[in-house]
């Protein structure tokens, strides 16, 4: 795979991740559907879409392999934490917390697994995380509900572990389908075990539609694409590039959901993207191209 093709596919995956934040926030934050129902529909839709594609190609969905324990468990933690957090957090802010946790998890997992990121990548990651921290630090009009932040941090750890597990995927489409097939009933467990909320209301058709699109398209197909490109990147690189998602989600939240935009958000976004660019060596490549 050429470098240009890899960059294009990674960019497409990042857009899908950002779209999930927008869809979830519009549905759950807008009161169109409750958080747990959104997570369940998202998992079921993803499982159906991916399984249909695998079976259409006359392949099997490997639901009984031992590695499903890690993949499906991490995906379930992500799906539930993600939906619960977006009841109270804006799309961009939620994505910032999520991928900050993803970054730390993937860097730590990569180092434990033998990845040795160069100093530039550590510095870039630190700068990007400072940008995220600046945005979510309680001050002025921006404050983060503690329980929602905790749910999103848990989702970030889940997604980080899920991404690390995906580096060994030999059939990305089939393995993502199997993970979603297990995540669907696992997401149902909290509904069966926890008492019903007295404030819960029936989902609207709009909320259901958003959940299905999130599950079948931006999650199912987006995650299969992510599993396909993961083996071509070091864990520290794949963790770093995902820090672009909060900036995309914040911009989309302002444009599509009418969420607020502040100088603090702009500054934090610039710092985050600058850290990513430095960590990936973008400035060095630009200087090299100019010198040539």
UniProtKB/TrEMBL annotation:
Gene Ontology CC: membrane
Organism of derivation: Roseicyclus elongatus DSM 19469
Subcellular location: Membrane
Signal peptide feature range: 1-18
Keywords for this protein: Membrane, Signal, Transmembrane, Transmembrane helix
Span of domain EamA: 149-277
Keyword Transmembrane: yes
Regions crossing the membrane: 35-56, 68-87, 93-113, 122-140, 146-165, 177-196, 208-230, 237-257, 263-286
Entry superkingdom: Bacteria
Listed Pfam families: EamA
Membrane topology type: Multi-pass membrane protein
Protein name, as recorded: EamA domain-containing protein
């Amino acid at each position: 795979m050429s470098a240009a093709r890899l960059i294009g596919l990674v960019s497409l995956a990042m857009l899908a991740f950002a779209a999930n934040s927008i869809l979830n926030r519009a549905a759950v934050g807008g009161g169109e559907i409750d958080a747990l129902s959104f997570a369940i529909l998202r998992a079921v839709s993803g499982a159906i879409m991916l399984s249909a594609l695998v079976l259409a190609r006359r392949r099997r969905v490997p639901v009984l392999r031992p590695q499903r324990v890690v993949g499906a468990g991490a995906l379930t933690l992500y799906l539930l934490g993600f939906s619960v957090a977006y009841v109270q957090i804006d799309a961009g802010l939620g994505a910032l917390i999520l991928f900050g946790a993803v970054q730390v998890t993937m860097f730590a997992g990569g180092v434990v697994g033998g990845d040795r990121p160069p100093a530039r990548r550590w510095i870039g990651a630190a700068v990007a995380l400072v940008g995220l921290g600046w945005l979510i630090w309680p001050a002025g009009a921006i404050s983060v509900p503690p329980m929602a932040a905790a749910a999103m941090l848990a989702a970030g750890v889940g997604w980080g572990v899920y991404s690390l597990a995906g580096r060994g995927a030999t059939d990305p489409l089939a393995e993502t389908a199997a993970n979603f097939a297990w995540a669907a009933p696992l997401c149902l467990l909290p509904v069966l075990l926890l008492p019903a909320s007295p404030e819960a209301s029936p989902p609207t058709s709009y909320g259901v539609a958003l959940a299905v699109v999130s599950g079948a398209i931006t999650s199912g197909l987006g995650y299969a694409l992510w599993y396909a490109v993961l083996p071509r990147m070091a864990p520290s690189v794949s963790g770093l590039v995902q820090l672009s998602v909060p900036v995309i989600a914040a911009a989309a939240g302002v444009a599509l959901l009418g969420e607020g935009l502040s100088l603090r958000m702009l500054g934090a976004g610039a710092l985050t993207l600058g850290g990513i660019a430095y960590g990936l060596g973008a400035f060095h490549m630009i200087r090299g191209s100019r010198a040539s």
